[in-house]
Automatic annotation (TrEMBL):
UniProt keywords, alphabetically: NAD, Oxidoreductase
Domain Fe-containing alcohol dehydrogenase-like C-terminal: 187-383
Gene3D superfamilies documented for this protein: 3.40.50.1970, Dehydroquinate synthase-like - alpha domain
Family per record: Belongs to the iron-containing alcohol dehydrogenase family.
GO terms, molecular function: alcohol dehydrogenase (NAD+) activity; metal ion binding
SUPFAM superfamilies in the cross-refs: Dehydroquinate synthase-like (SSF56796)
Regions crossing the membrane: none
Keyword Phosphoprotein among UniProt keywords: no
Cited Pfam families: ADH_Fe_C, Fe-ADH
Protein name according to UniProt: Alcohol dehydrogenase class IV
Amino acid sequence: MKPFVSPKKIVAEEGSIQAVEEVIRDLNPKRVLIFADPVVVEVGLTQNLEALLGKAGVEYKRYTDIQPEPPLEVGDRAVETLREYRAELVIGIGGGSCLDITKAAAVLATHEGSVSDYLNLSGTKTLTRPGIPKILIPTTSGTGAEVTDIAVFSLEDTKDVITHEFLLADMAIIDPELTYTLPPRVTAASGVDAFTHAVEAFVSIHSSTLTDTLALEAIRKIHGNLRTAVWNGSDKTARREMAWGSLIAGLSFYNAGVAGVHALAYPLGGLFKIPHGESNAVLLPYVFDYVWPSCLPKMKVLAKELGLPLGGVTDREAAKSVVQALRDLVTDVGLPTTLKEYGIKEKDLDILAENGIEQKRLLARSPRPFDVKTVRQVYEAAYKGELNG
């Protein structure tokens, strides 16, 4: 049985960015490299962090060559910068792509080769050392990247990952105050991403009592607060609940795994550069419309947690009501619910299916098996916006 795994330390409360001081005292680094999203720097979210480092008398450098859905060359530049700067601590502050770059760079800086050498699907090298200590600080409530050992990179027509426990944070800091300025679209996409983590972890074939407990609490928090966080971003209670929900969804999916939604989302990001959270959102109801017959008892639990009527309702009817509720959530937060809305053509579905079926690491966790035919059927349903029944 696989043990439950998480970062060494997790600090989760408002103002918790101050916990960086503890790591500085323990490690006494001479040089720190901060990986930060450019927009995070622009809106001033690194100011407190830099003030803490300055107060401690630590030399630091800020690195902002970060892109959403990062291609391999962005990762390679980050690794080379860290090797040259010889930092003794790295801090990532930003969205999921920034945190993924931080994790990969921190480990690969002490290895030979490039990012491509260590990819899951095509890499030929193995990680052998834990690398440089790292602190991960998310500024969105969604990706869960701060508590996973996964770094995602965009290839020409799909995505691939580096995954190893060496990529886990030495400290993950979840400070809801850093999410207060997120615009609605980013709040929506990252929030549905976190919600997808929770529901996919819950129905994963690798789920456990512990991951189910975390997933269900995340579902309650996210479903109950996402709409408010999107349309009334100044509501601090909703922002806090989203931050906690994202954290525990991340812990759940890191241990139970995600499956079909994420597998089919990767080619959307690779081929059409659709942001990861939106790729998950547009596919979420259609993937569950395919998998629900294989996990009816859990779909009924989801119906209860989503507040759907259960009196006189069959398990099948409850499951189908969950599928509709998933699409309603995506609609309510203002995100597209069809592939057509992203400019995807029907002729593109075949290449999407060919790339989607290659995500075997993810598809293996699905409660209902996929083949290339069923993958294409899901893409076609998402293209047309059609749910069965």
